[in-house]
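To whoever picks this up:

The parser on our side crashed when reading a file containing two proteins. I've narrowed it down to the boundary between the first structure block and the second sequence. Both blocks are reproduced below exactly, byte for byte. First block:
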Amino acid sequence: MPAPDDSALVPPSFREAAGHAGAWPFEDARKIVGRIARTGQKDVIFETGYGPSGLPHIGTFGEVARTTMVRHAFRLLTDDTVKTRLIAFSDDMDGLRKVPDNIPNKAMVAAHLGKPLTQIPDPFGTHPSFGAHNNARLRGFLDQFGFDYEFASSTDYYTSGRFDAALLHMLARYEAVMAIMLPSFRQERAATYSPFLPVHPETGVVMQVPIEIVDAAAGKIAWRDPASGENYTTLVTGGHAKLQWKPDWAMRWYALGIDYEMAGKDLIDSVKLSGEIVRALGGTPPEGFNYELFLDEKGQKISKSKGNGLSIEEWLTYASPESLSLFMYQKPTAAKRLYFDVIPRTVDDYLSFLDAYPRQEAKEQLGNPVWHIHAGHPPAPELLRHEGRGTAISFAMLLNLAAVANSEDPQVLWGFLRRYAPDVTPRTHPALDRLIIYAVRYFRDFVRPAKTYRAPDAVERAALETLAETLLNLPQNASAEEIQTALYDIARPIPRYQDLKAKGATPERPGVSNEWFNMLYQVLLGESRGPRFGSFVALYGVAETRQLIADALAGDLIRRHAEFLTERGGDKG
């Protein structure tokens, strides 16, 4: 999802529509436009932060993805006349306070608690330090998906002297910073607090100790080791000390001239305090907004140390990075549960937005998530051509094809699709090929084990028998629309499925309720919901659907699924 370099090719209609676009990335980008109008600056710096005390997780990706969306909206609003940069900053000089739950060699890491992350051995054994390992994980992921960013390491910036001038300036403003921070603490914490944390010259631990002497002219602080009672004097420059994280955040904004950074809602108070410190230093806090946090299946906040919720790797096992970007785009200020069940719906939402994009006017396109996901250049949707019509294949459709075929083989699904559209191949439809692979994995791990088939009652049995007979009498190449119409006509006379409140319904020609289709999903597919059934039959095949009905009426679907569950339970045992 990189920021493209061909803004000059953007149609004038897009530039005009962008000024009034209501999508949240444009709303945030307009804040930055207002900022540069006040300052006259010719470049803008975006920043995202990462605390590498735990492995990178989806929230980390979300912050970079969302910031990139705002950056691209800003580029369109300014006709790309303002230089932009995105810094992905890692606070890898932070002292590790606890051992994460989801790493190996915990005892080895525990022996180094309190040291900067870049001074702790890598428990995975692949990098010079734990911080380096987690930084590499983050960069590898961001690089894999084309983000345009500059990586920055806190350790590098502190030890190289890049922050020295800002640190000395903050030391000179020590009392002003303390006046901002101390009211935010309880009395006991306030009595020992200092924004500067010296690195112990012997143990290497980042020390949380009171500062006894502040010598701004010499750029030094004096402190006492509470364990040994020994006095030390430490330079605040050159990586000999670092800042507590709120002053550190403020110093970074000031030193680097950050113009935009978003943060989670749990950091609202921290953003305010850091903003006050920036002003005390003579700078201006960045623009930004506070996004809601992700929750796991139980409604608990996702934590990188606990490893709960979905990981980046888990999402990408079952769905595309574009679908993950859509999840990040949608309602960023609303709390959302992030677990496996959201994947199919998100994938199909993405495909629906992609399918609609070519038919939309510029204003609608700028409000379409795929414009933001693909930096203004979404790919054309891949359609199956049948009888002169284009059909988009959904994730739900593929899951149900896998379900009725009871197959985890992608080639079986390709067989159904080629029968419907003979010219389709993985080469002509590479995105569909990837979608099929995702679908069979998701079917194998989540759908098949969770299926619940039920037997039809007398009314449902009669309706299914009528459906089987109707399918037999349809034309050989009946379209999905013709099949769907036949489905409505079967259900319309059955009182249980009549809907007199449907649009255009009359007593003579009632509408058809969703109960009819819910029954088909439950009895034939073992699901509570499913795809448009006419399209499903057209893809799966009329003869195959009639056999599916026969198997359901004979109880074979229930029996075979019970056998599968028994066998699967035995394998697990």
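<<boundary where parser fails>>
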Amino acid sequence: MKMNKQIAESMAEVVNHQLTADDIASLLEKPKSSELGDVAFPCFTLAKEWKKSPQTIAADIASQLNNDNIQRVQAVGGYVNIFLDQQKVTQQVLSNIMQAKQSYGTNQTGMGAVVLDFSSPNIAKPFSMGHLRSTVIGNALANMAEKNGYQAIRINHLGDWGTQFGKLIVAYQHWGDKQAITASPIEELLKIYVQFHEEAEQDPALIEQARAAFKALEDGDAEALALWQWFRDVSLVEFQSIYELLGIHFDAFTGEAFYNDKMMPVVTELQEKGLLVESDGAYVVEMEEMPPCLMTKTDGATLYATRDLAAALYRQQHYQPEKIFYVVGNEQSLHFKQLFQVIEKMGYAWAKNLQHVPFGMMLKDGKKMSTRKGKVVLLADVLAEAIATAKRNIEEKNPHLPNKERVAQQVGVGAVIFNDLKYHRLNDIEFSIEQMMNFEGETGPYVQYTYARLCSILEKTNAPAEVMTFQPLGEQAWPIVLLLEQFPKVVAMSFDQVDPSQIAKYALQLARLLNKYYAQQKILADDEYQASRLALCSCVAIVLKESFALLGIELPENM
């Protein structure tokens, strides 16, 4: 909060820089009640060090503190309560937003590139609701990285290699129907994959066939490779249609198979650095306070860790990023701790720039969704249902709305994305189509409707785009101004804490305050305050649109 920084600098002078402005800024807080001011500074932590009572310290600071944006200061108990000059602050905040427009909130603290590894669905398996979380959290973080000055490199580390392809090849050879798969790729591939697991419970020989099929694939067998390539190609076409609907793009689809020829050099490097230890015929890297990290199996085959190690080395060399984020579920936490420690043991200082961004599971009836057992909810089905629900609402409430199809898509898809991002990423989410389709309360459509209402208000008037002097807008508008002023801080904090839910909650709070203000004020009343009220509405619209852009959600101008 820029205002807090100014106050902290003034306060640092009052205390003769016994505390830095940054130290003071970190202690400033919002009072519980507006009657106690707009900003408060607690003096309790200073009492012991300065050998004075908190009340005395507060009184001393309050008597000397002065700043152009401060109207008055009170010492109450051990707090310095600061009341800001509402007209001056309103003038500054609204002028800044109207001048900056969509670049408001942009921070230039970031330097260089940030690589984000996210989404990563498995080839030949459906894009389920279980994949939604990594996809939308990763995309939001990429948008937030760019807003904070970084170049975001979006990588889709596809699950396009591994023993499941041996199972799928055997399943296709036994029960596959080429025509059916061509017509409906993922649905048919899932069907024979599930059938394989059901049949294998009765016939263990199928597992051996699958191992042999994957070995043939690894050895470059032409028939196995052709099937694998076909499975990959048809899956990507289907995935791409979902990404287009979600409005998400990637810079690279370098999946697991991309690193097939890059793993042996990694294993050689581990050997040369004396890090590989034999364990029952396999090779591991010993870990501190963790189980050993398995690098090659007894048959010499490589594993996830080897592949992720090759990927990390390739990305570092190829992109030279400041950070690499792995947006992968909670259950992989140990894997990434091991991976990062192996890279550290190899002597690479950039290991400290690697970060696992874990998230909770999408549950159905309290349980994790399982592709193997066919217990999945397809994301494409959920998006289609959300769009259909939005369309029904439009037909009911605004049947003459132009671009109904486009608006229904924006609202339906936005509802699904927002329903995920409004929760802290570490929380598990119970899948509920009813909750997702509830367009009241803490939902994406609620914010979208608020934005559309603002656009409608602003269309009805010829108010000047720039207002030079803002009239006082009263107590109802003041909380909105203070919240608008905080947006750059929220943008910075949400990225630093890799937490898109802060942006989602901010947008909800701003929409709620605006709707409360709208209920109490006649925005279009023809008086001397109209231009200032419209400027406030314009600024809220700008910040709501930018907040949702960071989350990867579009805001329709009409609903």
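After patching the parser it read the second block fine. The radius of gyration is 28 Å. The chain has a mean pLDDT of 91.
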